[in-house]
Design brief:
Helix content: 10-25%
CATH class of the domain at 3-120: Mainly Beta
CATH superfamily of the domain at 3-120: Immunoglobulins
Distance between the termini: 77 Å
Radius of gyration: 27 Å
């Protein structure tokens, strides 16, 4: 090895071994290199307890090329002029018992298509990005005050070719991006795109953290996809799984013959629920590996956000099924997991304050989205799983009995601002016998779609950013199936195209109306008019923007009974107009005309001095907005 290169690498590895190298992908894996012998490739891998490590591949007829340990760093490296880009390789690990095992390169940027498992020789090429306008626009306004409406996508099953092949990134760029833009979503969130052997895992059991799954494409194609999305005004979010990894023997498990990436304690290392292995989040090298990985997708691919999967699994020592090892004081908090998540968020936001770091956290752990200096985990959004469970349960009830469970739809207002919440109706809610969104709601097809429109209008008026899984917008009848494309054929049926048109209208309305997205993190963004009408099962509230005149009144009727001459209190005297009615004929309902503008009277309603009357459609939601109102200035002075 070139002596100067040896010294430089040893300095880099000092940071790696102390958990402070957050661009370790630049020195690990296969890298183009010009050294004294000429131009070739340098391969570098962390295997601290191996007796020996050798490089094997197509370029050596799979004969071992011995690697040398870099000082006492636990990292092995070798330079060779023989490899060519795209050739297969692996590392041959010898443990201290003399057992040899072929292993992938944890930092490989490409792999063979499963069930083949070799890493491919590849380095990341330079790219001249053309998305500067996107970044300029992102800096103009705080992410908290912007609309965030996510379309969650499983890459392989959004659309497929007639012969069953997945679309390429180029094809997805030509079809998915324009579709998302036309429908009015702001972001695409991909379920994990990283290399994984089993399609049925949906990508949540990863082997190659730095590679795009070969069945989908490659890193170059994905970069181009992200760039095109940005040029069309669409952000990209990636699902990421730093808590646990695929247990297949050729991958990270027992990497050098000992627990390397995982915990030493089997109770902590083995994830019984998912059949995976948990990362040892307290190990410095694992921190360098994982935080570098998040940085890699952010810096090298310009992704706009990372949704961190299964955060609860990293917070609790007893989250899994089976035996667990408590802390010395008997408690169940995973202190290493907490420290890792704080370090991750601090590092990411230190580099990019506009990044979206979203926690899929399913428990009542406090302060997930609070600053680290205040004892929080430092995320900027958390999935609101409580809202999701209660709301879906409520809408699955026979409307006759909803009055007896009205708290399911109103309780979320009590905690809506405890965190910066995102309201998710994700893939997890439409699989494993849970039925599609359409299948969850009662009634004939007309009433099912009326329920869905009502549900979505309530969801988009509720404080919190939004996420819907692909297929929700077309009223898919069957559960999601990862091995088939969405049921696009349902758009030939009655109600489905009208429902898709409604979702498109609602999505654009959400972006246009600042009252629906500008104040999601504060109580000042909402004012409850009446959440006590259990008997009629009607909920009324106001959503506000930062401008006092700019607000919306939301009236949701959760029963199939039309409420005529329904009185509600309003904050100002004047004239109000109907902005949205979920029962319009164009959406699949029966109403052919919007209601006439509504003038207030001085008849008080609860604590309001003024009120108005309207007709609230059966199983419908109405949005009203002020058209001409009085008294705003006087109220400000008070």
């Amino acid at each position: 090895m070139n002596r100067n290169l040896f010294i430089d690498l040893e300095k880099e590895l000092y940071l790696f071994n102390h958990g402070e190298h957050f661009e370790s992908y630049r020195i690990m894996g296969s890298k183009r290199s010009t050294e004294e012998a000429g131009s070739g490739w340098r391969f570098t891998v962390w295997a601290p307890n191996a007796k020996s490590v050798s490089l094997v591949g197509d370029f050596s007829d799979w004969d071992p090329i011995e690697m040398a340990e870099v000082g006492t760093t636990g990292v092995w490296s070798v330079f060779s002029m023989e490899p060519k880009e795209g050739q297969c390789y692996q590392y041959l690990m010898e443990d201290h018992n003399g057992t040899f095992t072929y292993k992938i390169d944890p930092y490989a940027l490409a792999f063979e298509v499963p069930p083949k498992e070799a890493s491919l020789v590849q380095d990341l090429p330079d790219k001249k990005w053309r998305d500067g306008q996107w970044y300029a626009n992102k800096r103009r306004k705080s992410i908290y005050k912007k609309p965030l409406n996510i379309y969650e996508v499983h890459f392989a099953s959004w659309k497929r070719h007639a012969d069953g092949r997945s679309y390429s990134f180029q094809e997805m760029g030509e079809e998915l991006i324009p579709y998302v833009k036309e429908m009015g979503y702001t972001h695409i969130e991909f379920m994990p795109l990283m290399e994984h052997p089993l399609e049925a895992s949906w990508g949540y059991q990863i082997t190659g953290y730095y590679a795009i799954a070969a069945r989908f494409g490659n890193v170059v194609e994905f970069r181009d996809f992200v760039e095109e999305a940005h040029r069309q005004g669409i952000g990209i979010i990636l699902d990421w799984v730093p808590g646990h990894f695929c247990r297949n023997g050729y991958a990270l498990s027992q990497y050098d013959g000992t627990p390397t990436f995982e915990y030493q304690d089997a109770n902590q290392a083995v994830n019984n629920r998912w059949g995976t292995i948990n990362f040892d989040l307290g190990k410095h090298q694992v921190q360098s590996f994982l935080i570098s990985n998040a940085m890699y997708w952010m810096e090298e691919f310009h992704v706009d956000g990372i949704r961190v999967d299964a955060v609860s699994n990293m917070l609790y020592l007893d989250y899994d099924e089976g035996p667990w090892t408590p802390n010395e004081d008997g408690t169940n908090h995973n202190r290493a997991g907490v420290a890792f998540l704080q370090k991750l968020n601090q590092t990411i936001f230190g580099r990019n304050p506009n990044m979206l770091m979203i926690a899929e956290e399913s428990t009542a752990w406090a302060n997930v989205t609070r600053p680290i200096e205040m004892g929080g985990l430092g995320f900027n959004y958390k999935w609101n799983m409580g809202w999701m469970n209660d709301t879906l349960k409520f809408f699955s009830l026979d409307p006759l009995f909803r009055k007896d469970h009205f708290e399911l739809i109103t309780f979320s207002f009590m905690y809506a601002f405890n965190e910066n919440f995102l309201l998710p109706i994700s893939h997890d809610e439409v699989v494993h016998g849970k039925k599609s969104l359409l299948g969850k709601v009662p009634g004939d097809r007309y009433n099912q779609f009326a329920n869905l429109r009502n549900f979505q209008a309530y969801m988009f008026a509720h404080p919190g950013k939004k996420l819907n899984f692909m297929g929700n917008e077309i009223g898919q009848f069957l559960e999601w199936r990862f091995e088939e494309e969405l049921e696009w054929g349902v758009l030939d049926n009655e109600f489905n195209p009208e429902y898709q048109h409604f979702i498109k209208t609602l999505n654009h309305l959400y972006k246009e109306q600042r009252a629906l997205h500008e104040i999601d993190e504060s109580q000042t963004g909402i004012e409850i008019i009446d959440a006590d009408n259990r008997l009629e099962t009607v909920l009324t509230f106001i959503r506000k923007s930062e401008k006092e005149r700019d607000f919306l009144i939301v009236i949701s009727n959760f029963t199939p009974v039309e409420r005529r001459n329904y009185r509600i209190g309003v904050p100002y005297e004047g004239l109000y107009e109907e902005l949205l009615n979920t029962e319009m004929q164009e959406f699949g309902g029966t109403w052919t005309m919007h209601q006439a503008d509504m003038k207030t009277t001085s008849e008080p309603f609860k604590h309001y001095e003024h009120s108005l009357e309207l007709t609230v459609p059966a199983q419908g939601t109405v949005y009203l907005r002020p058209k001409r109102i009085y008294g705003v200035k006087q109220r400000k002075k008070a």
